Automatic annotation (TrEMBL):
Predominant place of localization: membrane
Family as reported in the entry's similarity comment: Belongs to the multi antimicrobial extrusion (MATE) (TC 2.A.66.1) family. MepA subfamily.
Keywords carried by this UniProt record: Antibiotic resistance, Cell membrane, Membrane, Transmembrane, Transmembrane helix, Transport
Keyword Oxidoreductase annotated: no
Topology relative to the membrane: Multi-pass membrane protein
UniProt GO MF annotations: antiporter activity; xenobiotic transmembrane transporter activity
Name of the protein in its database record: Multidrug export protein MepA
Transmembrane segments: 12-31, 51-73, 94-116, 136-154, 166-189, 195-216, 247-267, 273-295, 316-339, 359-383, 390-411
InterPro entries found in the cross-reference section: MATE_fam, MATE_MepA-like, MATE_MepA_subfamily, MdtK-like
Length: 452
C-alpha cells in the first residue's frame, strides 16, 4: 500500500496514468455495459413502456449517485492530498467522515422516496401508461441505494490511495452478476420490470460486501476506526465544498432529464421518452471511459500537487486531456456513423428506431468536446479548487442545457430538445478552456498548501 502511494510521485507519468486509468475505465465500461444490457433486456422483455419507465426513474438514481459522488470525490481529494503531504491521520479521518455521511444520506433518500413513491414519479414525468412500470422498478431499486452509495465512496477512497484495481474489481463483480441475473428474473421468473430491479439490488449487495471486506480486513491504509466514523464538521465542510461540483453536475443532470422528459412528453409522446432513455444508456458506454481517465489521473495530480511536484502535475494534466479527447472522438464517430445499429440492439420497434437515429445524430454532434470538459472539471477537484470546479459543473447543465431545453422546443418541437445538447457542450467547452489555461499558468508560478 505504501508502495502504491510512493509510485504516485515517482513512476513515469504515462505508465502511471495508464496503470490507474485502465482499471477505472474498464470498470466504468463494464458498469455502462450493464446499464446497456439492462435496457436491452427490458426493451425486449417489456417493450417501449419499460424503456420509458427506466428513463423516468433514472433522474432519481442519478440524484442519489450525485450525493455519493459528492462525498466520494470530496473525500478522495482530501485523502490523496493528505497522503501526498504524509498526513495519514487526516486521510483516515476524511475516509471515516465520507463513509458515515454517504451511508446516512443513502438511507434517508430511500426512506423518503418510498413514502412518496407515486408523487415522486409523477413529479419526474411519469404518465398513466408509464407509472405502473416505473413503480414496479423503483420500489425495489430504492433498497439498494444505501449499498450503492457506500460502494461508490469506497471506490473513490481506494483510487485515492492508488488502488485502482480494487475499484475496478468492485464494479466488475456488480456488473457481471447483474448481467447474469437480469435474464433469469426478467424472462425465467417472468418478473418483468421488478425482475430487472431485483437483479440490480442483489448485484449492489454483493458489491457492497466486497468493498466493505477490503477495508475491514486491513488491506488498505484506510480503515473503519470508530472514532473516525464520527463525522468531523471541518472535514465534512471541505468534502462538501470540493465534491459539490460533482454533485451539482449530476444533480443538474437529474433535473435536466426531468425537464427533457417533460418536454418530450409535451412535444412528442411516450415514444420520445423511450428514445431518450436508450440514447442515455448508449452514450454512457462512450462517456464512462472518459470518467475512468478522470478518476485515474485525479490521485496522481492530487498527490503530486500536495507533495509540491508541480512539473509532474502539469504533465499528467496534459496527458489526461489528450487521452480523454481521443476517446471522446471515438464515441462521437460511433454515434454519428452507427446510430441505427445501436438502436436495433434495444428494440425492433421501427418507429422507435427511426426517431432514435435522428435524435442520436443531433445529440452527439459535439460529443468530441466532452472529454476535455470532464478532465478540466476533474483537475480542479483534484487540486481542491472548489469554486472553478463548481462553476464548470454548473455550466453545461444549469447555465446552458436547461435554458435551451426550455426555449428551443417552442420553436422546433422535439428537434429543439435534441439540438440543445451540442449547443450546451460547445458553450461549456469554451468556458472550460478559459479556466483551464488560466490554472495551468497558476501552476507554473505557485505551489500548494497541504491542507488547502
Amino acid at each position: 500500500m505504501s508502495t502504491d502511494r510512493h509510485l504516485l510521485g515517482t513512476e513515469g507519468i504515462g505508465r502511471l496514468l495508464f496503470r490507474l486509468s485502465l482499471p477505472s475505465a474498464v470498470g466504468m465500461i463494464v458498469m455502462s455495459s450493464y446499464n446497456v444490457v439492462d435496457a436491452i433486456f427490458i426493451g425486449r422483455g417489456v417493450g417501449s413502456p419499460g424503456l420509458a419507465a427506466v428513463a423516468i426513474c433514472f433522474p432519481l438514481q442519478l440524484l442519489a449517485g450525485a450525493m455519493a459522488v459528492m462525498a466520494g470525490a470530496g473525500g478522495a481529494s482530501i485523502i490523496s492530498r493528505s497522503l501526498g503531504a504524509g498526513d495519514l491521520e487526516r486521510a483516515r479521518k476524511a475516509f471515516g467522515t465520507t463513509v458515515s455521511f454517504a451511508s446516512g444520506i443513502g438511507i434517508l433518500v430511500s426512506v423518503f422516496v418510498l413514502l412518496f413513491l407515486e408523487q415522486v414519479l409523477r413529479l419526474f414525468g411519469a404518465t398513466e401508461a408509464i407509472l405502473p412500470h416505473a413503480e414496479a422498478y423503483l420500489s425495489v431499486i430504492l433498497f439498494g441505494i444505501p449499498l450503492q452509495m457506500f460502494a461508490m465512496v469506497g471506490n473513490h477512497a481506494a483510487r485515492a490511495e492508488g488502488r485502482a484495481r480494487i475499484a475496478m474489481t468492485t464494479l466488475l463483480i456488480s456488473a457481471i452478476l447483474n448481467m447474469i441475473l437480469d435474464p433469469v428474473f426478467i424472462f425465467g421468473f417472468g418478473w418483468g420490470m421488478r425482475g430487472a430491479a431485483v437483479a440490480t439490488v442483489l448485484s449492489q449487495m454483493v458489491m457492497f460486501l466486497w468493498i466493505f471486506g477490503y477495508f475491514y480486513r486491513g488491506k488498505s491504509a484506510l480503515s473503519f476506526v470508530r472514532e473516525y466514523l464520527v463525522p468531523s464538521p471541518r472535514l465534512l465542510r471541505e468534502i462538501v465544498a470540493v465534491g459539490s461540483s460533482e454533485f451539482v453536475r449530476m444533480a443538474a443532470g437529474s433535473f435536466s432529464i426531468v425537464l427533457i422528459n417533460g418536454a418530450l412528453v409535451h412535444w412528442g409522446g411516450d415514444l420520445h421518452v423511450a428514445v431518450y432513455g436508450v440514447i442515455n444508456r448508449a452514450l454512457s458506454f462512450f462517456f464512462m471511459p472518459l470518467m475512468g481517465i478522470a478518476q485515474g489521473f485525479q490521485p496522481i495530480l492530487g498527490y503530486n500537487y500536495g507533495a509540491g511536484n508541480l512539473d509532474r502535475a502539469r504533465r499528467v494534466i496534459r496527458l489526461a486531456v489528450t487521452a480523454s479527447t481521443a476517446l471522446a472522438l471515438i464515441g462521437f464517430t460511433a454515434a454519428q456513423v452507427f446510430p441505427r445499429e445501436i438502436f436495433r440492439l434495444f428494440s425492433g420497434d421501427q418507429d422507435l428506431i427511426a426517431e432514435g437515429v435522428r435524435a442520436m445524430s443531433l445529440i452527439s454532434m459535439a460529443f468530441f468536446l466532452i472529454g476535455f470538459q470532464i478532465t478540466g472539471s476533474a483537475m480542479f477537484q483534484a487540486l481542491g479548487k472548489a469554486r472553478p470546479a463548481f462553476l464548470l459543473s454548473l455550466s453545461r447543465q444549469v447555465l446552458l442545457l436547461i435554458p435551451l431545453v426550455l426555449i428551443l422546443p417552442g420553436f422546433l418541437g422535439t428537434k429543439g430538445v435534441w439540438i440543445s445538447f451540442p449547443l450546451a457542450d460547445s458553450g461549456s467547452f469554451l468556458l472550460t478552456l478559459y479556466l483551464f489555461r488560466r490554472e495551468l499558468l497558476n501552476l507554473a508560478v505557485s505551489g500548494p498548501v497541504a491542507g488547502d
